[in-house]
Each structure stands twice: as C-alpha cells, then as structure tokens.
Amino acid sequence: MKLDRLLSIVILLMNRRMVQAKELADLFEVSVRTIYRDIEVINQAGIPITTSQGAGGGIGLIEGYRLDRNLLTNQELAAIMTALQSVSTPYRNNQNNMLMEKINSIIPTAQTDQFQRMTQQFIVDFSSWGVNPHLEDKLNVIKQAIEGCQAITFTYSNAEGQITSRSVHPYTLILKQQKWYLYAHCTDKNDFRMFKVMRMKDLIIQEETYSRQDIPIGELPWNQGWMVSNSSSERMQLVLRFHKRIRHIAEEWFGVEQLEQDSEGNYRIMIDYPEDNWLYGFILSFGQDVEVLQPSHIRDRIQAIAMNIVKIYERT
Length: 316
Description:
The protein is an alpha+beta fold and 316 residues long. It has helices spanning 2-15, 21-28, 32-44, 74-88, 94-105, 112-119, 133-148, 226-229, 247-254, 277-284, 296-315, and strands at residues 49-52, 58-61, 150-157, 163-176, 179-186, 191-196, 200-209, 235-242, 260-261, 267-274, 290-294. The protein contains 11 helices and 11 strands. Strands 6-5-4-3-7 form a 5-stranded antiparallel sheet. Strands 9-10-8-11 form a 4-stranded antiparallel sheet. Helix 1 (2-15) packs across helix 5 (94-105), helix 4 packs antiparallel against helix 5 and helix 4 crosses helix 6. The longest helix is centred in the C-terminal third of the chain and has 20 residues, at 296-315. Residues 2-57 form the HTH deoR-type domain. One of its GO terms (molecular function) is DNA-binding transcription factor activity.
C-alpha cells in the first residue's frame, strides 16, 4: 500500500542521514520515479525532506527533525526493542524490522549511544544453528494464510511416520524449544490440532476463507506439557542411570535437583514420559552413558534396538 510505503520512507529517513533514491526503490520494489513522487507527497504533508546531488548526497530529513516520544521512557523502549530482536531471530519479519526502525527514530541523537548499549545488554536468540530456507518459506506461506483467513492444504507425516493429506484453517504459529508448530482447525477431524511445520510439505493456500473462532488461550496445548500435547500414549515412570562423566548433560535436561548420586558416583533420575519412538531415540541419544533400570520392557526394547544397530555396522 502507498500509505505504508510513505510511512516506511519517513521512518528510514529518520534513522539515516542520507538514503539514495535507488536504494529506496529497490527496497520497496518500485521505480525511482515513484520514490520521487512519494517524496513530494511527504513534503506536502509537512515533513521536511531535502535532496542533494554528488558524493554523499541523496534524500534526507532536515537536521533535528524527530517524532514526539513522550509516551515511553528509554528503558521501556529498550525493553520493547529487546523483545522484538528476540522474536526476529527465528523468523524474519519486515513489520518487526520497521517497528524497530520507528523506535530508533524517536531516540534523540544525544542519547543514541546510550540507548544502543541498553538494547545490547542481553540477547535472546531463539533461532537454531544454521539457516533453513525451506522452513522460512513454509512459515511465510502459513503467515500469509493466517493474515488472509484462508485455508491451506498440505501433506503431513506424523510422529509414527503415517502420511496423510490435510486441509486446515490456520490460527497460530508457535515456537516451542526451537521447533515451529501450527495450531489449526482440521476440517477432516472437525477439531483443533497441532502440526509440526517441518513435517508439512506441499503447502498450498486455498481460495476458501474462514471465520476465526474464539479460542481459550489458557487451555491451548502448547501451554501444557509436551507429553500431553504431542503423544497419545500413557505416561510411565522410568528410572535412568547416567554415568558421572555426563552429569553436566543430565543436569541440563533435568535440573540439578532431580539427580540422585549413587554409591559409584553415577546419577539416577526418576521421570515420567510416554512410551513412543521419541522416547527410544531420546534414550539412545546418550549412547553408552545412560542405562534404563526400570521398567524392564523399556530396557529390553532399548537393548533390541542397540543390537539391531550393531548388526547393521557388522554388515558394513
């Protein structure tokens, strides 16, 4: 929209002394002529913009022009900036970036350095190591569908490897332990479901639109334990023994208070988990440094899996 572009240009100019017209044209995917027409409209609205030629020239605001910022203190603005920066780490969002530009624009020049230090006191980064362009494409498709209240279809593979075709009304994207999920109303099941985004493929936005229902935030599945929201199996109590050499890893997973040291210097823990393929993989991820003590059938299952792994490598 033209109004959004005009406001965005003003915000950018507040944060930079000079910007080239071509840079603005590339940013907003319009022609340089359109940018100059926008500048004329902004000037007519009473916001003083100047242009200059030559090296170091470009488009800029007159010196000292700033927006009113009486509503929030620098500390409050810094808190907002920190939150926005944290949210932007796992999911790039132009609206978030523009809001951060707006906040920077209302900080007086004399306080800029101090404000930057305040926003860099701690950083919360929710993103995983490396970049996954396929995940970002999926998130953009889902976000577009949510904004337009449009149905989407996709092929989904659940935790047991079963593949189904789904048609859903997307409601909310959730980031939980560095994994993205979609909370949506499944038209096939006529109920709300959680879908892991990385297990979705062939996403297509449909022309069909829907009216959003009111959903009780306190009862949503991502506010419950993962055992409740992601598994249909009943929970059982496990007793695991961790070797003392990976005490630090066990502490990261379960907390120092949950570990009980035995006479040999190793550590035991009692935990409740549902029995499924995730549990087997979780236990095996610790390799030789963990042993299942109870229940016996889980111990036998892990032993059988380990023996099959040995056979694979013996053949190799």
